[in-house]
From TrEMBL:
Residue ranges of every copy of the YtkA-like domain listed in the record: 37-119
Signal sequence bounds: 1-18
Region (Disordered) residue spans: 134-153
Coiled-coil boundaries: none
Name this protein carries in UniProt: YtkA-like domain-containing protein
Record-linked PROSITE patterns: PROKAR_LIPOPROTEIN
Keyword entries, A-Z: Signal
Length: 249
């Protein structure tokens, strides 16, 4: 009897320890935080396929961060230009109209195909989806336009560089020069971006948001300058583009 009683006591102790270990394991599992999901800044840029000359149209950009509607974006601007004339672009503010939607009204005064970016900065991220619209007689050139690789409704693939400088720059005045860099439609992170001021000076940049690179420079003399934006990273990207800027007195 003593032997049987001893064995029953040992069995109860083992069962008790097992329950405690199980409870402890369950508590640890419940207490563990789920890994934080990586959120992305997404912009649904809504542009009509066609418009008439002189017609006022509304351009909309719906901004989301993960599942969240972004109602307080730092900056949403729409830049548009006639195809082949990117140096002669127009920038307009897009205002929040509710539920993460930012809108701006634009009127095109000439026939042609117009391209545009929705420059969007929010949550320390930057993205700039690209679209195009055919205006007036420009619709007749749409097939040729797409055959050249500019899809009417999708973002261009590959590396896209957009250089942003103030409209007015004075000599001996330090200005911020900003380049927005995309790869396959998304802001390119972690790239080495430098500005080459011809003839010849180099300006290193700092990545101030995903795909946005900023560097400051003071132009010493009045006149025309060529700025070459160089972009490269460890994954083999090495691109450059040139922009002309005028420096006043």
């Amino acid at each position: 009897m003593k032997k049987i009683g001893f064995m029953l006591l040992m069995l109860l102790m083992i069962t008790s320890c097992g329950n405690e270990d199980g409870n402890e394991t369950e508590q640890k599992t419940e207490g563990q935080e789920k890994p934080e999901e990586i959120q992305t800044l997404d912009v649904d840029f809504q542009v009509p396929d066609k418009a008439d000359v002189g017609e006022t149209i509304e351009l909309k950009a719906t901004v989301t961060y993960g599942d969240e509607q972004v109602t307080d974006a730092n900056d949403v601007k729409i830049e548009y230009w006639k195809q082949g004339h990117e140096d002669d672009s127009t920038m307009v503010e897009a205002n929040h109209v509710g539920e993460g939607i930012y809108a701006s009204k634009v009127t095109f005064e000439e026939d042609g195909v117009y391209e545009m970016y929705a420059h969007t900065t929010a949550r320390d991220l930057h993205t700039m989806p690209k679209k195009s619209i055919s205006v007036g007689e420009g619709a007749q050139n749409e097939e040729d336009h797409e055959a050249e690789g500019h899809d009417h409704s999708e973002q261009d693939e590959g590396v896209a560089i957009h250089f942003d400088a103030p409209d007015t720059i004075n000599a001996d005045e330090s200005v911020e020069l900003i380049a927005h860099v995309e790869n396959d439609g998304e802001g390119l992170k972690g790239a080495n971006v430098r500005y080459e001021i011809v003839d010849t000076d180099w300006v290193d940049t700092e990545e101030t948001a995903a795909g946005e690179y900023t560097g400051s420079y003071s132009f010493k003399e009045v006149g025309s300058y060529t700025v070459v934006i160089h972009v490269e990273n460890d994954e083999g990207i090495h691109e450059h583009t040139e922009r002309e800027i005028e420096i006043g007195s």
